[in-house]
Amino acid sequence: MVLRLRSHVPLLQTLIKEAAASFPANLSGFQNWIPFWYAQPTTTDTSDATTSASEQEIHQLLLQYPESMQAIAELMGFT
C-alpha cells in the first residue's frame, strides 16, 4: 500500500501517523495487544460527540454491508 500511495504524500503521511497511533510503540507491546477494531465495545451506544449523525449512519451501513468495503479494497488492489 505504501508503494502505491507514494505519489500521494499528504495522504501517506496521514496514514502513517494514524498507524503509529494505533500500534504499540515497541515489540513487547504486541504481546497482549488487541487491535481496536477487534476489541469489544464497552457500550452498545455507538454515538460519539465528535461524530456527526451522517457519519454515524455511514458507520452503521458499513457494519451492515462489509462487502462494499471489501469490493473497494479489491478494486484498489489492497487484497
Summarize the helix and strand pattern as letters: HHH
Unreliable stretches = none
Number of helices, where a helix is a run of at least 4 consecutive DSSP H or I residues:
3
Main pleated-sheet profile:
none
Q: In what range is the share of β-strand residues?
A: under 5%
Alpha-carbon distance between the termini? 10 Å
Helical proportion, percent range = 40-55%
Q: What's the average pLDDT?
A: 81
For the CA atoms, what is the radius of gyration?
A: 16 Å
Would you tell me the structural class of the helices and strands?
mainly alpha
Shape: extended
Beta strands, count: 0
Walkthrough of the structure:
The chain is mainly alpha-helical. The protein has a domain at 54-79. It is built from three helices and no strands. It has helices at residues 9-22, 53-64, 66-75. The longest helix is centred in the N-terminal third of the chain and has 14 residues, at 9-22. The mean pLDDT is 81.
Tell me the layout of helices and strands.
Layout: H1 9-22, H2 53-64, H3 66-75
Helix pairs in contact: 2-3
Please name the defining characteristics of this protein:
79 residues
Describe the structure concisely.
The chain is mostly helical and 79 residues long.
